[in-house]
Design goal:
468 residues; alpha+beta; eleven-stranded antiparallel β-sheet; nine-stranded mixed β-sheet; 20 strands
């Protein structure tokens, strides 16, 4: 599993570069105190969830309901200045996305579990008339033998082995295949699954008509882990950032995806059609998080296709939520427990949706009558600049040359209620994405990061998924 090992090493290295000490001066951090919750509940009366104003799932196609005034923010920020640590320069070249007004309607939401009916509808939308089998898919020794034969005859694999060895990696592609082959079964019994009789947890696999790939199916509704996923058994998926950075020993950095099998518009259309057939209409695609991606065979690294990894978030009143891929740089005990933001990930190429994962399900319980007023953008911009300096406190040690802010976006973020890990509130939040360009040894290296700021108080928000 050389890619698995290599990516773990790459991630560990990136995390070690990103770690910074807790600053010696006070930083405003949302700690779950009563202040923001008091603001939310001040003069607010809940609208019943079954009323017209508060559907339990807010359709992604709905318009923003209340726009009393335009929020004053530039369309783009372009400026540069020294970070003040080492030789690092901060460069803002970022569009500012503000999809709603300066007042923000608050939703009270609760964590939700997927239902078997939902899981079955997703499975049927994905496989159509293709067969679905119960249990866990496993390759047989004969199938591994066929793969080994391909590797022995493939010039691509021989070149990859040379690249790995030149990077000091002692193993070959064949080594990892033989390692898995040792424990592989001689045969596999495919037992048809009766979807109408399914129950959680779901462990199954299937094939689509005209597609030779087996897909693993998983569905769970445990309190600490709620997810529905359908993934190719042989997939390794890398977005363009991983590809550009070099995703395994010997991989060239700077490589770009330039053989996309579909346009972004075509990929989104296919994903939207799939979600519609699956009965999911309260999610919308994230423009800033959806990226070109490459689907490669997980054992032999041969590219299968280039398409798009699309990220969908829960929408409230037509505005999308934020991501949950954030790693905090302040002491974790300063943060209130994060909320798993509802997210769907899909990979789409010319063959359609090839990967699906849905987690962090939630539903609207109430819509608050009051609205939160967000801070002026000038104040938010200063908070962003301060935060960049703290995020990159080790810029001199890390040989950071450039910190390039690429996106500033206003969206929804769900935070837990005080002393209640099962219910939360939507609050407006700024999502800031940036690149850190540094030296890894003597070689250029790019890390991609983001952080989230509460748009009402300016506090930092930890959004990484966590079980409650």
């Amino acid at each position: 599993m050389k890619k698995t090992i290599a990516v773990i090493l790459l991630c560990c290295l990136t995390v070690s570069m990103a770690c910074v000490p807790t600053p010696d001066h006070e930083i405003v951090v949302y700690q779950g105190d009563q202040a923001l919750e008091d603001m939310i509940n001040a003069t607010a009366e809940a609208v019943a969830p079954d009323s017209e104003a508060a559907p339990d799932k807010t359709s992604a196609s709905e318009e923003v309901m209340h726009t009393p005034a335009s929020y004053q923010a530039p369309e783009r920020i372009q400026e540069s200045y020294p970070l003040g640590i080492g030789d690092a320069q901060v460069i803002f070249d970022a569009p500012v996305s503000v999809p709603f007004s300066d007042r923000y309607q608050v939703y009270e939401v609760s964590k939700a579990k997927p239902t078997v009916t939902q899981a079955v509808q997703i499975i049927r939308a994905f496989f159509g008339n293709g067969p679905v089998y119960s249990g866990q898919y496993s390759m047989t020794k004969a199938e591994y033998a066929e793969l080994l034969k391909y590797c022995d005859e493939s010039p691509e694999i021989q070149e990859e082995n040379r690249n790995m060895q030149a990077s000091g990696f002692e193993y070959t592609v064949q080594y990892f295949i033989k390692d898995e082959m040792d424990t592989a079964p001689l045969s596999r019994e495919d037992t048809a699954l009766d979807l109408d009789q399914s129950a959680f947890p779901i462990r199954a696999y299937g094939k689509r008509t005209g597609d030779n790939t087996f897909y693993q199916i998983q569905g769970d509704d445990r309190d600490d882990y709620c997810v529905i996923s359908i993934t190719p058994e042989n997939m390794y998926l890398a977005n363009e950032r991983l590809v550009y950075s070099g995703i395994y020993p010997g991989a060239p950095s700077g490589r770009k995806l330039n053989k996309l099998s579909v346009t972004r518009e075509e990929a989104v259309a296919a994903a939207d059609a799939f979600l519609s057939e699956a009965g999911i209409d309260w999610m919308a695609v994230s423009d800033t998080e959806s990226l070109p991606a490459e689907y490669s065979h997980r054992l032999i690294d041969v590219p299968i296709s280039q398409g798009w990894k699309l990220v969908y978030h829960h929408t409230y009143n037509g505005v999308t939520g934020v991501n949950q891929q954030y790693s905090g740089t302040l002491a974790e005990d300063q943060y209130r427990s994060p909320w798993p933001q509802e997210t769907i990930w899909m990979y789409v190429d010319a063959e359609g949706v090839r990967y699906f994962e849905w987690c962090g399900m939630s539903e609207v319980e109430e819509v608050k009558e009051n609205e939160l007023v967000i801070m002026p953008f000038e104040e938010i911009l200063q908070i962003i600049k301060n935060r960049l300096k703290i995020e990159n406190a080790y810029a001199e040690v890390d040989k950071t040359r450039e910190i390039r802010v690429t996106s500033i976006e206003l969206g929804y973020c769900v935070i837990p209620k005080k002393n209640d890990g099962m219910r939360g509130y939507t609050v407006p939040a700024w999502i800031i994405s940036y690149e850190e360009n540094s030296l890894l040894g003597d070689a250029p290296h790019t890390s991609y990061r983001d952080f989230v700021i509460d748009a009402v108080t300016g506090a930092n928000i930890q959004t990484a998924a966590a079980s409650q």
